[in-house]
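CORE FACILITY INTAKE
Project code: CF-77B
Contact: R.S. (postdoc)
Sample description: multi-component assembly, two entities in total
Requested service: structural model of the whole complex
Turnaround: standard
Below are the sequence entries exactly as provided by the requester. Do not edit them.
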Amino acid sequence: MGKKSLISITDFTKDEILRIMEIAAEFERDLAGGGVASRGLLQGRVISTLFFEPSTRTRLSFESAINRLGARVIGFSDVANTSVSKGETLHDTISVISNYCDMIVMRHTLEGAARYASEVARVPVVNAGDGANQHPSQTLLDLYSIKKTQGRLDGLKVMMVGDLKYGRTVHSLLEALSHFDTEFVFVSPSELRMPVEYRTLLDKKGLKYSELTELDGHLDDIDILYMTRIQKERFNDPMEYERVKNTYVLHAAMLSGSRETMKILHPLPRVGEIAADVDDSPHAYYFSQVENGVYARMAIICYLLDVKK
Amino acid sequence: MAAQEKIMEVQMIENGTVIDHIPPAALFKIITIMGLDRDTEHRMTIGTNLESKRLGTKAIIKINDRYPSPHEIDRIALFAPDARVNTIRDFAVVEKRRVEVPARIEGFVRCANPMCVTNHQPIETAFEVVSGASGEIALRCRYCEKLTSQKRMELKK
């Protein structure tokens, strides 16, 4: 395999996505038993985590994955003390650093920065978020969470709630799930509905979807409830935000008729769209979802480096 | 009168190119693409807001002893997809070409997304040409993946 990067979820075929799911499950089993097999896999390797934009959670998840594989981490979590603050171009920063390591994991505020870095770097690049564009490891951990909790990826009914217009996580997850026999339910205020290009994609693939503007009363036959944050600044009219904001808040009482196996996912951080009383529900899965991020990232790193267990 | 005018326009050129059916709004972009604003060598006539049956109004460029390269024609097509490029030799039209919108374009157009890396770093832009809203074309940025609609297409400075 030549140098392969992961910049956008569409860089992976369905088979590659399924392979990542398998590898992630193997790592999960190994770590449950002490992580002996994982520990030496990347011994002697060096992986750079370049966070041009701070993101503690994503960086620590990647660094945890790298450490559990036995590789060393170099990098920065803030550009203040780097040549970037002196005006160095992204081209030069990436060219130099790709000589120091076997892989680059990067986050950047600018959209397309990771794709460009993958063209410049001599080593694989993993996009850990480029502005509002892509964050494919989040998508793979979401998918892994779905597979793990439902036992399958085909034949599921997935409800996406919140800001479906600008939310990059829902767009990427939709693209990934469109490889499988998925039925979608989109719940959002009308100004934040799922963009036409994604609805067209589902039409082309012959996948069913419906659109709602209310959450309550529609949860009984859902397998995965994917909640996202609605940001006030997305509304042209602040009054409209005030009017709809409570429509998209999930409370424990709304889950009484839900399927026993239904799980609630959220890319986090949440800011009030899931009430605290949901946390104790057997449906709440958003904190376990975070744990799956480490397994998914271990799988991504090993797959791109072509290292087999 | 209109027919006479048409003959006059073509007859003015002995050898060269007539680019016809340009939307007036795209004229200055095409002038820039072909570098005509800096051309002090070739004799040329540029007309705009002329009557056109097909477009309502149109612009036209007539230029002596200058033949646009395939690369320039690809770029012209992006802003004037209905343009005709006519080659003139000895006062006669020897070739009439419709322009064709290319599948991919590199450089010269700016990505409309202000957060795109190509607007902040010295990077050549690259786009895939896709169909946009209401039959128009749109450009999908290779880097930020966002669409630039035909209306928002601007030349890169």
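Facility notes:
- The domain at 9-136+293-304 of chain A is CATH 3.40.50.1370 (Rossmann fold).
- Chain A has ten helices and nine strands.
Invoice: internal transfer
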